[in-house]
Structure formats: structure tokens, C-alpha cells
Amino acid sequence: MMRSRFAVVIIFIVVTLVAGCGDRETSRASDVESAPATEVALPRSELHLIPSESVGDTFRVSIALPSSYQSSEKRYPVVYALDANAWAWFGTYAEIVRVAAAVEKLPEVIVVGVGYARPVAEALALRARDLTPVSSDEQDERIREAVPGLPGSVVSGGANTFLTLLDHLRSGTETG
Questions:
Q1: What is the DSSP letter of 34?
Q2: How many CA atoms lie within 13 A of 93 on its CB side?
Q3: Nearest alpha carbon to residue 111 among 66, 71, 67, 173
């Protein structure tokens, strides 16, 4: 029993660190339009397609709500998970935190998964655009070789712009 509790806590910590959970950040789900359902839904979750003019792309933003969300006015910590639509990560993150809250009596959290409204192969190239702080011609060349046909605007060095998008999602303001 003690081993399983320890394993759940370790998994929760790893997911929290990887996903970039801010310990002081709290939020309620924002009021944005939902995308039409085209996939199997995760219970107590929402899917939104959010265009970003500053990034020049549309993002899939998935939100998993705690079981007490509908009946509570309290604010919840938020875990932001990147690559959320690749390899079913969003569902994995959401269920890990739900199990940790139920079994380990850890706080309930909202999981916000940020992913791409594109195939996984293209999403890998977009990660270089959104997660690298400076441009690199060498990186851009590798991206073009790996995923031919990407728009010329998909280049490395867009981390500041992507961070602005995440800040807009966090604050519930329009994405710019």
C-alpha cells in the first residue's frame, strides 16, 4: 500500500514538473467556444480550438475539470500540459491528477492541455517554433527536411510569442 501511494505521488510530481504547474496560479475555466466533438471525450473535459494571431496558428486547448468543479465556487490550481494532443498525453495527465486527488488526498486541479490542431508529424516541427527561445537556421533546415510542405512562417525562435499565448490562456483574455 505504501509503495503504491509513493508511486502515485512521484508520478504526480513528475507530471506537475513536466507540465509546468505554477504553485500560486489559480483559475476558473475560461468562456471560449468549443470545437465540435470529433473524438472520444474524457469525462468532465472540454475541447476548444483557439486561434492565435500572434503565433499565426490555431491551438487545441483541452481542459479537464475536477469532480467538484460544478458544485464549487472555489479556485483551483492549474497544471499546464504541453504536447497535450500527441500520444494521448492530455488524458494521461488528467487521469493521474484525478487519481492522485482521490487516492492521495492531494488538491484537485484543473488540467489545461495545449496542443496543435495538426497531425503529430507537423506538431513536432511546431514545437521547435514554439519552444525555442532563439532562431536557428540549422534547426529550421532540419524542420523543413523532416516535415516538407510546412509554411515558411514555421521557424524556430518563437518561445516568447508562445509564452504570450500561454499567458493569455492563463488570464482568460483574448489570444493575440
A1: B
A2: 32
A3: 66
**What residue spans define the domains of the chain?**
2-171
Rama region for 172: left / alpha / beta (φ>0; ψ in -120 to 50; rest): left
52, three cell numbers: 492565435
| pLDDT tens digit sequence for 63-115 | 999 989 989 899 999 999 988 877 678 888 899 999 999 998 889 999 999 99
The alpha carbon dihedral of 15, 20, 23, 25 has a sign of negative
CB under 8 Å to 157, separation ≥6 — which residues?
A: 129, 132, 133, 134, 135, 136
- Amino acid identity of residue 84, one-letter, is A
* Strands laid side by side in the 26-27 sheet: 26-27, 76-82, 110-116, 57-64, 45-52
Q: What is the pTM of this model?
A: 0.70
**For the chain, how many helices (H) and strands (E)?**
5, 5
* 19-73 pLDDT, tens digit each: 444 333 444 444 344 444 456 678 889 999 999 888 888 999 999 999 899 898 9
d(CA 86, CA 97): 18
